Amino acid sequence: MGSNNTRTNHPSLPLRIAILECDTGLPKALKKYKHYGAISSALLESGAAAAGLKPEDTEISFWDVVKNVGVFPKVEDVDGVFLTGSKFDSFADNPWTNALVDFVKKILDQRRVKLVGVCYGHQIIGRAMGARVGRNDSQGWEVSVTDVDLTPEGKKVFEGKDTLCPSGVQPLGSTDRCKVQGMFIPERVISVQGHPEFTEEILVEILEVRHEQGVFGDEIYKEAMARVGKKHDGLMVGKRFIQFLLGD
C-alpha cells in the first residue's frame, strides 16, 4: 500500500502499525507464533476486534531491529510504532540499541506517528526522552501476573481498571518494585512496563527456562508460578493501545 502523507493524528483505515521486534523469543513460543513480533500482533489484533475493527482495518508489518541494524519503516508509511519487550538491556551501548533509540527520537520529533512500548520498549522510549534507565537491583525481579496501582491518569487511560519518568510525561501506575509502570503523552506515547501480550503458556515457558538457567531462584520461581494463571487485563490494554493509535 502506498504512503498517505495527508494522514493526521486521527488516521484513516487501515491503521498501519510497525512492530519493532526487539527479541527472538523462546522455542515453544516460536513454534506457535513463528516469530517474536507475532506475539504482540496477536494482542493488537484481539484489541482491534474488541474495539470494533474488522481484520482488514489493521495493517501490521514486522521489523527485526536486532538482526537488521538501522533498518526501520519510513515514518510516512506508518501510523503507529510498537516496540516489543526484550531480554536485552535497554541501557546497553551497542549498534542496534543505539540505532533503535535514535529512531524513537525521530518519531518523537514529529507529531503524527504514535509510539507504543511494552517492557523493554517502554524503557527505550523513556531513554529516548532523556530518562535514566538501568537495572533495578535493589528491588529484585517482578515477574508473573502482578497488580498495578493506577494513578488518576492511569485510571482514565485504562477505563478504571524501571525508569524515572521524563519531564512532561504522565505516569500511569506503580508497584512496590517499579515506580513507573506506564507512561502517557496524549496523542503521542503510551507505554507499560508489564507484558499484556503474554499468555499463561508464554509466561510458564519463560519462568521455567529462567529457573533452569539460575536467573530465578526457587523462591521467586515458585511464587511466580503460583500467580501465573491469574486473570489479567491484557485484552483491555490491547484494546486501549488500538484506541490510542486511532486517536480516541
Give a written overview of the molecule.
- The protein has 248 residues and is of the alpha/beta class.
- It has helices at residues 27-33, 37-50, 95-108, 120-128, 152-157, 200-212, 218-227, 234-246, and strands at residues 15-21, 58-64, 80-83, 114-118, 149-150, 170-174, 182-185, 189-192.
- It is built from eight helices and eight strands, in the order E-H-H-E-E-H-E-H-E-H-E-E-E-H-H-H.
- It has an eight-stranded mixed beta sheet with strand order 2-1-3-4-8-7-6-5, sandwiched between helices.
- A hairpin with a 3-residue loop joins strand 7 and strand 8 (189-192).
- Helix 2 (37-50) packs across helix 8 and helix 6 (200-212) packs antiparallel against helix 7 (218-227).
- The radius of gyration is 17 Å and the shape is globular.
- Mean pLDDT is 84; it is low at 1-6 and 159-165.
The N- to C-terminal Cα distance equals 24 Å
Rough outline? globular
Across the major sheet, the strand order is 2-1-3-4-8-7-6-5
Main sheet attributes: strand count, strand direction, barrel closure: 8 strands, mixed
Order of helices and strands: EHHEEHEHEHEEEHHH
Q: In percent terms, what proportion of residues is strand?
A: 15-25%
Oligomer: single chain
Percentage of residues in helical conformation:
25-40%
Counting helices, strands and paired strands, the structural category is alpha/beta
Stretches where pLDDT is under 50 for at least 5 consecutive residues are 1-6, 159-165
Number of helical elements:
8
User: Over the alpha carbons, how many angstroms does the gyration radius reach?
Assistant: 17 Å
Q: Averaging pLDDT over every residue, what do you get?
A: 84
Quantity of strands, as a count: 8
